[in-house]
C-alpha cells in the first residue's frame, strides 16, 4: 500500500502533467478545427482567382463586331418599314388585288408585338448606335403598317370578294365550326390567327417549363406568351401569301418586293443571331429558338427568293417594264 507521502507525490505529478498536456491537446484541437475551416476557403480561393484571371484574360468584344451587330438589326428594322411601304404603294396603284389579308395582318401584328419589346425592356440594346434610332425606326414601321391597313380597308369594296383567293386555313375552320359560321369573316380569314395561337400557346407552356432566367426563376408566362406569339407569327405569316402565289402563279411586283424585303430582314436577323455568341462571348436564353425561327423563315421564303432574283435578272437584261410578276415553278418566268 502506498504511503500518504507517495500518494501526495503521485497526485502532484499527475496534476503537473495534466497542466502541461491538457493545454497542448486543446491547442492541437483548435489547430485542427481551424485547419478544417480554412481548407475549403483555400480550395475555393484559387478557383475564384482562376476564374477572375480567365475573365481578365478574355479579350473585350471587338468594336467592329459590335458595330456590325448593331448594323444588322438596324437594316432588319428598316426593311420591315419598306416592306409595309411596298404594300401601301401596291394598294394605292392596283387596289387590294394580290394581297393576302392574313399575311399582311400577321406581319403588322408581328411588328407591333416586336415594338412592345421596347416597353418590356427585352429589345436588343445597341452598343455603338444610339438606342433611340431603333425606337424611331420601329415607330415608323408600326405607323406604316397601320396606314396600309386603313388603305386596304378603304379601297376594298367587299372584303370577301377582294380577298377571295386568301384561303389559308379556311377548310380547317369549316370542318370544326358549325355551318352557320362558314360565311363569317373569322372563317374566311382567321386561319392564320387560329394556328398561330394554338402553336404559340403550346410553345409558351413548354418554354416556361424548360427555359429559366437567372437564379432558376421561370420566366413570367405573359412574357413567354408575347415572345412565342411573335416568333410563331413571324414563321407563319408568309404562308398565306405564298399559298396565293402558288395557286395563281401571279403576284404584283410591289408585293414581290414586300416578300423580298421580309427575306432580307430575316437574313440580317439570322446573321445577327449566328454571330452574337462569337462577338460577345455569351448567348441569351432565347438564342437557339430565335436562330431556328429566322432559319425556318428563310427556308420557307427560299423558293420564292430564288425565282424572284431570277425574274428580276431577266427583266433587267431584257429591259422590260415591271408590272406584274408571273412565276412558273417549273422553271418559266416572265413579266407582263
Helix/strand layout:
Layout: H1 4-57, H2 63-94, H3 101-120, H4 131-155, H5 159-162, H6 170-176, H7 185-189, H8 191-210, H9 221-236, H10 238-248, E1 250-252, H11 253-280, H12 287-318, E2 324-327, E3 333-335
Antiparallel strand pairs: 1-2, 2-3
3D architecture notes:
The structure is a single chain. It is globular and about 115 Å long. β2 and β3 form a beta hairpin. The protein is mainly alpha-helical. α3 runs antiparallel to α9. The chain has a three-stranded antiparallel beta sheet. It has twelve helices and three strands. It has one domain.
In short:
The chain has one domain (about 65-335).
Annotation keywords:
disordered C terminus; 336 residues; mainly alpha; 3% strand
Give the helices and strands as they follow along the chain.
Answer: HHHHHHHHHHEHHEE
Uncertain spans: 35-51, 213-218, 331-336
Classify the beta-strand content into a percent band: under 5%
Mean pLDDT: 75
By helix and strand content, what is the structural category?
Answer: mainly alpha
Count of distinct structural domains = 1
Strand order of the largest sheet: 1-2-3
How much helical structure, as a percent, in the residues? over 70%
Q: How many angstroms does the end-to-end distance come to?
A: 134 Å
Largest sheet: 3 strands, antiparallel
Give the C-alpha Rg.
34 Å
| Number of beta strands | 3
Amino acid at each position: 500500500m502506498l504511503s500518504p507521502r507517495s500518494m501526495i507525490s503521485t497526485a502532484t505529478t499527475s496534476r503537473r502533467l495534466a497542466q502541461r498536456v491538457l493545454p497542448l491537446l486543446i491547442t492541437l484541437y483548435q489547430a485542427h478545427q481551424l485547419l478544417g475551416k480554412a481548407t475549403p476557403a483555400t480550395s475555393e480561393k484559387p478557383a475564384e482567382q482562376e476564374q477572375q484571371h480567365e475573365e481578365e484574360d478574355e479579350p473585350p468584344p471587338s468594336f467592329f463586331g459590335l458595330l456590325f451587330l448593331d448594323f444588322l438589326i438596324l437594316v432588319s428594322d428598316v426593311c420591315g418599314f419598306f416592306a409595309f411601304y411596298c404594300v401601301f404603294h401596291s394598294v394605292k396603284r392596283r387596289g387590294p388585288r394580290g394581297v393576302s389579308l392574313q399575311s399582311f395582318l400577321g406581319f403588322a401584328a408581328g411588328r407591333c408585338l416586336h415594338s412592345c419589346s421596347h416597353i418590356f425592356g427585352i429589345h436588343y440594346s445597341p452598343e455603338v448606335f444610339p438606342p433611340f434610332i431603333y425606337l424611331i425606326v420601329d415607330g415608323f414601321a408600326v405607323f406604316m403598317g397601320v396606314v396600309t391597313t386603313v388603305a386596304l380597308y378603304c379601297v376594298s369594296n367587299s372584303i370577301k370578294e377582294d380577298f377571295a383567293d386568301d384561303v389559308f386555313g379556311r377548310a380547317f375552320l369549316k370542318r370544326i365550326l358549325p355551318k352557320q359560321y362558314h360565311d363569317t369573316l373569322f372563317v374566311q380569314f382567321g386561319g392564320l390567327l387560329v394556328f398561330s395561337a394554338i402553336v404559340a400557346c403550346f410553345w409558351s407552356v413548354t418554354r416556361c417549363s424548360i427555359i429559366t432566367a437567372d437564379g432558376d426563376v421561370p420566366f413570367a408566362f405573359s412574357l413567354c406568351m408575347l415572345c412565342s406569339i411573335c416568333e410563331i407569327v413571324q414563321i407563319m405569316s408568309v404562308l398565306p401569301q405564298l399559298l396565293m402565289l402558288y395557286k395563281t402563279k401571279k403576284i404584283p411586283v410591289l408585293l414581290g418586293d414586300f416578300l423580298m424585303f421580309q427575306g432580307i430582314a430575316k437574313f440580317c436577323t439570322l446573321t445577327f443571331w449566328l454571330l452574337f455568341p462569337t462577338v460577345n462571348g455569351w448567348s441569351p436564353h432565347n438564342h437557339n429558338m430565335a436562330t431556328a425561327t429566322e432559319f425556318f423563315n428563310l427556308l420557307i421564303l427560299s423558293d420564292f427568293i430564288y425565282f424572284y432574283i431570277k425574274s428580276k435578272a431577266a427583266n433587267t437584261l431584257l429591259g422590260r417594264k415591271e408590272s406584274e410578276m408571273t412565276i412558273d415553278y417549273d422553271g418559266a418566268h416572265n413579266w407582263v
